[in-house]
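Action item from last meeting closed. Structure (235 res):
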């Protein structure tokens, strides 16, 4: 649960406008760092962004659930690089009808926060843990944080809708799309919480497989090298 499918017109301007301004501020700060990166790294970032876009554009199952790969993006690109990718991907998805254009900033913040948390957790555990498990653990932490932020935004949407009497027809987040808000946050949580936990498991399994692949084929892409001494590895 880390991508908002809230259509334009539901959230007031101060909510989505604040999210967009904060997201643009992060982009400006991150652009300074991007100036020092090599063309090869920019191409690498773009390739991973295309992978993230493809993953988020393909629904899985009857609830139109889709993976985000925000955790692996944060681990492989770092917080700033992953946030740039998240913003561009969110904008492209909005143009494809996956949420309104007004929530691009909020989506970038939710995905970017999850990517940042995944990167931080991975850096903390990678020196003592096999890459696959470190990647999975970091991704699980990032997905958990992104889900909490998703619930916060959707909860605010429900509160504002209840106060204003509006009705939304499409609220989702890598999960149930077409779920009305009129049932309240409790009704939403009944469906969303299981999908949130499912998302943590699915994203972590994918990250585990990606970590094993990179450790065998191209370990240089991992931000932290695997432990040299097998005795130090966490079972």
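Sequence:
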């Amino acid at each position: 649960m880390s991508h908002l499918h809230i259509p334009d017109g539901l959230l007031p301007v101060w909510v989505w406008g604040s999210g967009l301004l904060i997201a643009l501020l992060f982009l400006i700060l991150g652009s300074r760092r991007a100036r020092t990166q090599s063309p090869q790294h920019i191409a690498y970032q773009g390739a991973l962004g295309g992978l993230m876009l493809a993953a988020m554009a393909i629904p899985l199952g009857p609830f139109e659930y889709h993976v985000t790969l925000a955790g692996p993006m944060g681990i492989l690109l770092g917080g700033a690089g992953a946030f740039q990718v998240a913003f561009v991907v969110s904008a492209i998805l909005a143009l494809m009808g996956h949420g309104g254009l007004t929530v691009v900033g909020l989506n970038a913040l939710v995905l970017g926060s999850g990517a940042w948390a995944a990167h931080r957790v991975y850096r903390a555990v990678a020196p003592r843990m096999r890459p696959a498990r470190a990647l999975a653990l970091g991704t699980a932490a990032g997905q958990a944080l992104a889900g909490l932020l998703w619930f916060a935004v959707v909860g605010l949407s429900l509160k504002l809708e209840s106060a204003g009497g509006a009705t939304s027809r499409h609220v989702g987040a890598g999960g149930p799309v077409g779920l009305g808000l009129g049932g309240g946050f409790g009704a939403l949580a009944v469906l969303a919480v299981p999908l949130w936990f499912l998302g943590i498991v699915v994203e972590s399994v994918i990250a585990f497989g990606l970590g094993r692949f990179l450790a065998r084929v191209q370990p240089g892409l991992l931000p932290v090298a695997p432990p040299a001494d097998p005795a130090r590895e966490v079972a």
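Note appended to the action item: Residues 166-182, 229-235 have pLDDT under 50 and may be disordered.
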